[in-house]
Design brief:
Elements lengths: L26 H4 L4 H11 L15 E4 L12 E4 L2 H6 L6 H13 L15
Antiparallel strand pairs: 1-2
């Protein structure tokens, strides 16, 4: 598979990047120093922790609504249900996972193929 677009990613010095790893620093290192204050502000704005995805109370994850983890403005941060909420019975849906999947699907390039007529209908 030389030159395959599906070849595993390479580290700068050569060699593969282990599965599930990226070149981003760990999540805790990416959070701003005032993250606890941002969470407290979000809780003050939305004490019921209403999920911005499904509009039901009880979200436990503070989500970047625009998907940009560097944008920590108060308007961009709101609560969302996670797998922890599903496990605890607070939500039937992992809204955070659904939102992330929708963002990934929207970012993927689409095939611009012409509509085809089914062979039986020709």
């Amino acid at each position: 598979m030389y030159g395959s677009p599906y070849a595993p990613p390479q580290q700068p010095g050569g060699g593969r990047i282990p599965f599930g790893r990226s070149n981003l620093p760990p999540r805790a290192e990416r959070l701003p120093d005032n993250w606890d204050e941002l969470r407290a502000d979000a809780l003050a704005r939305n004490p019921q922790r209403v999920c911005h995805w499904c509009c039901k109370p009880g979200g436990t994850d503070l989500d970047h609504k625009d998907g940009n983890w560097e944008n920590n403005s108060p308007e961009n941060l709101d609560w969302i249900h996670s797998w922890r909420d599903v496990k605890a019975g607070r939500s039937k849906v992992n809204c955070h996972s659904k939102k992330t999947g929708a963002e990934g699907a929207a970012a993927r390039p689409r095939l611009n193929r012409p509509d085809e007529v089914h062979p039986a209908l020709r």
